[in-house]
Amino acid sequence: MKKLILIPFIVAIFTIQNIQAKALPEYTIKAAYLYNFALLTQWSSSNENQSDEFNLCFYKEDFGIASDTLKNKIMHEKKIKVSNINSIEEAQKCQMVFIRKEENIQELQLVQTLSQSQVLIVTDNEKIENSHITILSENTKLVFNVNLKYLKHTNLAVSSHLLKLAKKIIQ
After folding, report:
1. Which of 150, 154, 157, 170 has the fewest CB atoms within 10 Å, i.e. the most exposed one?
2. How far apart are CA 96 and CA 126, in angstroms?
3. pTM for the full model?
């Protein structure tokens, strides 16, 4: 079953990487990345964030219409709930938090607090070193790095398929 899910993901990633940034809005591609990052990550069964929904959170501001495409999709047998959050307390109720590069230095405290919890931290801000996944613009495509150095302090397990697609793996 997982192989059936991974085949479209791998095809989509390679297709997206070959499409020029002008062809698809950047946040549409990033929303697809977030969905697939979550799809290829396993949260332990002892996850303190157990709920009937998969909480995908955006720190301060989401992707607008691109975020709406994620609402009510199914992730790990749960309906995705997309939320904007403004505090560490709210972030601790999420399974994944995305921090935009436009946010100021306050998010560093958020990342430090969440970095050893079961919240997958994704950002497009290269200055945030202890996030789990960083999405980067490279020429006309988006790539991502996976930070195993910080992931090992969590009970999150990322798929080897995700690691194979990463531009860089930080050990």
Report:
1. 157
2. 18
3. 0.83
Q: Position 143: which residue type? A: V
pLDDT tens digits, one per residue of 93-121: 999 999 998 876 566 788 888 887 899 99
pLDDT tens per residue across span 24-83: 799 999 999 999 999 999 998 765 556 789 999 999 999 999 999 999 899 989 999 999
Give one DSSP letter per residue of 117-169, joined into a string.
TT-EEEES-TT-TT-SEEEEEETTEEEEEEEHHHHTTSSEEE-HHHHHH-SEE
CATH assignment at residue 147: 3.40.50
Q: How many domains does the chain have?
A: 1
